[in-house]
Specification:
- The protein is of the alpha/beta class.
- The protein folds into 2 domains: 165 residues, Rossmann fold, CATH 3.40.50; 184 residues, Dehydroquinate synthase-like, alpha domain (Up-down Bundle).
- The chain has 14 helices and 11 strands.
- Strands 1-2-9-6-5-3-4 form a 7-stranded mixed beta sheet, with helices on both faces. It has a two-stranded antiparallel sheet with strand order 7-8.
- Helix 5 packs across helix 6, helix 7 crosses helix 9 and helix 10 crosses helix 13.
- The protein is globular and about 60 Å long.
Length: 355
């Protein structure tokens, strides 16, 4: 599969990942190799990864607890201490082996330790392959509030080995599909239509869809690296979705949702807002809702849930002067940014979601 070159780094696929590592992990380039993994990837991915890494560099493994709840500044402090105790210097390099929590947090840790060291992202989940590890966003949550602390800083490379997907449970695979669906909805209607029937999807098909999804995201990021304009389109479904994800994370009576599960709901809600603002047709809305609901199970919301989720919208990072701003669909394959919506309309959107 052909590598994707961005303005500042390259995304390699499958066997070319390890060819690249063999060429770059040399003593004249780096002093020490640190691999950051969580408890899941340490068990299921790390042994196979290390078996394919040919280097004379000393290798140190740093392990963190798995899960969004550990995507915190407290975990960063633990990793910074580990790097210090293990003798990391600015000529060290960090490989972040894991899902979005590991690549986001690991990128932030590397970007800030000793004012910056190189890092490579090796995403092991579908979500991280098509979204979290690409685009240079690094950072952590602030309590339950998603991605409030961080910087945009690009990795040295991103390495995507789709064989890691064999380690994922089905719900994690669906979570990644949400971001791929989003890429079609915001930028490429033909890509979107490829998700109408996933029953006959092969590994090769999935590899090609991942490649196309990254191309879509990279094209948007290259136009707007700092998210001042068009890059905001990548947040379709995320204003509502992040609020839902945060609410379910903090509420002990609720089962936490995976990122993609929350974003799937967010896309339906925000597609409804698009319909009510006469940006898309009723047929487009029904298509969006039907395709997403064929992949993701419905989640139940009561009136109190919806009220609390709406309260969380004020913390969305796209907001300006306290005004909640949405990315809405202009049609399938196109978006409009910086749109607003009354709370009453959001309540109606949730009501329609439940029907």
């Amino acid at each position: 599969m052909e590598a994707i070159k961005t303005s500042s780094y390259t995304i390699y696929f499958n066997e070319y990942c390890y060819t690249y590592l063999q060429e770059v992990l040399l003593p004249e380039n780096y002093s020490t190799l640190f691999v950051l993994a969580d408890t899941n990837t340490s068990q299921y991915c790390l042994p196979n990864f290390l078996a394919q890494v040919a280097t004379e560099l000393p290798i140190e493994i740093i392990e963190i607890e798995a899960g969004e709840i550990n995507k915190s500044i407290e975990t960063c402090i633990e990793v910074w201490h580990a790097l210090t105790e293990l003798g990391a210097d600015r000529k060290s390099i960090v490989i972040n082996l894991g899902g979005g929590v590991v690549t986001d947090l690991g990128g932030f840790v590397a970007s800030t330790f000793k004012r910056g060291m190189d890092f490579i992202n090796v995403p092991t989940s579908l979500l991280a392959m098509v979204d979290a590890s690409v685009g240079g966003k690094t950072g952590v949550d602030l309590g339950i509030l998603k991605n409030q602390i961080g910087i945009i800083n690009n990795p040295t490379a991103v390495l995507i080995d789709i064989n890691f997907l064999d380690t994922l449970p089905s719900n994690q695979m669906r979570s990644g599909l949400a971001e791929m669906l989003k890429h079609g909805l915001i930028a490429d209607k033909n890509y979107w239509t490829q998700f109408f029937d996933l029953n006959n999807l092969t590994t090769d098909d999935l590899g090609q869809l991942i490649h196309e999804s990254i191309l879509i995201k990279n094209n948007i990021v290259e136009q707007d690296p700092k998210e001042k304009g068009i890059r905001k389109a990548l947040n379709f479904g995320h204003t509502i979705g992040h609020a839902i994800e945060s609410y379910f994370l903090e509420n002990s009576a609720k089962e936490p949702l995976l990122h993609g599960e929350a974003i799937a709901i967010g896309m339906i809600i925000e597609a409804y807002l698009s319909l009510q603002q006469n940006l898309i047709s009723i047929n487009d809305y029904i298509e969006v809702k039907t395709v997403i609901e064929n992949i993701f199970e419905k989640v139940d919301f009561n009136e109190n849930d919806i009220a609390e989720i709406i309260k969380l919208l004020v913390h969305d990072k796209k907001n300006v002067s306290g005004e909640v701003q949405f990315v809405l669909l202009d049609k399938i394959g196109k978006t409009v940014i910086n749109k607003t919506a009354e709370n009453s309309l959001i309540v109606k959107a949730f009501a329609d979601y439940k029907t």
